[in-house]
């Protein structure tokens, strides 16, 4: 981490000048509760020690100069000409500036250099890490005194409107509200949340990256959203108070199954069951029952694979291989799906065996090594120099 901070700081100073504000903005994991956030349901994510470091300084004019260390690319614009770019990465920064302007906050141009070790586009929300970092920096540098929830909503809107991905609120919420050794149970309807302790010496969180990045994820994501809305519309004929799948029970779904397109029914059943799994998993945590918790993670994967159908062969191979290693408590795909990472809970003494077995199995299937990272649950976006 120290090296990364130094690299970003130096690269900023070389281009823009001394003494930038330095921000650490984390990628997230999600233990359970996938594709529930945009259905006003429950999620159980945490911020991690995989971070983007951002060096930022305000300008006295309206120009905006960005440098991405990971892409080794520069981008220049000004507050009056924000526009979608061919490079795409600048859109995550511009989108946040755009939202601040639309909300009427007084900001000036900025200089930003950033880089990190969150896998890019890999299901750990590198995009929310960029957006959260920019929002946090603007709030600080221009003395706006906005609270974290306001920043969360602004960054989600940036992604929805400027980047054009209709994501839910989980990623930005976690990026900004994370705490060390705690996961957050978020009620994505009321936006109330509770911290749950997540710290075991003998159990680790392991992320396995398929290294597959699929464009499909965003188009299929929007299809899933529509299918969930379709299910709600059918049930609303019978239960007018229903607003989202959050209000639906499995019994209601079963009662009206015949009126559903079978695919839409499966999608809705998955979401209803996944919400229930999150609630039960939180009780497992309070009882320190990680065995039961891990089983729910594995059930979540089966639902994502067979009912919600957002998994992929590569994700399934990783999960199957992980599940065959003694000492693995649970394993599932994480995030939007179709590529990216799996998350596994692994007993500390089994981690080496996990790495060997999962790498060997994945190599046999694909000819590639997966990237395997151990992650710790860490604080949300924060200032790291004073
Ligand atoms: C992506 C979205 C989140 C959430 C997950 C699926 O990460 O950005 O809002 O919907 O997919 O749980």
Count of strand segments: 13
Q: From the structure provided, what is the oligomeric state, counting identical versus distinct chains? A: single chain
**Widest sheet: strand ordering:** 5-4-6-3-1-13
Tell the overall outline: globular
Estimate nothing, just give the exact number of structural domains.
2
Hetero compounds: alpha-D-galactopyranose
Concise account of the structure shown:
With 386 residues, this protein is α+β, with helices and mostly antiparallel strands.
Properties at a glance:
6-stranded mixed β-sheet, Ribosomal Protein S5, domain 2, 4-stranded antiparallel β-sheet, Alpha-Beta Plaits, binds alpha-D-galactopyranose, alpha+beta, 386 residues, 2 domains
Q: Could you please describe the fold and organization of this structure?
A:
With 386 residues, this protein is an alpha+beta fold. It has two domains: 2-199 and 378-383, Ribosomal Protein S5, domain 2; 204-375, Alpha-Beta Plaits (2-Layer Sandwich), CATH 3.30.70.890. The chain has helices spanning 2-15, 89-102, 126-141, 148-163, 170-177, 216-236, 250-255, 262-286, 290-307, 313-323, 351-366, and strands spanning 21-30, 42-43, 45-58, 63-68, 73-78, 110-116, 182-187, 193-197, 203-209, 328-333, 341-347, 371-375, 382-383. The strands form three sheets. A six-stranded mixed beta sheet has the order 5-4-6-3-1-13, with helices on both faces. The chain has a four-stranded antiparallel beta sheet with strand order 10-11-9-12. A three-stranded antiparallel beta sheet has the order 2-7-8, sandwiched between helices. A hairpin with a 5-residue loop joins strand 7 and strand 8 (193-197). The longest helix has 25 residues, at 262-286. Bound molecules: alpha-D-galactopyranose. Residues 34-35, 37-38, 125, 167-168, 170-171, 335-336 line the site of alpha-D-galactopyranose.
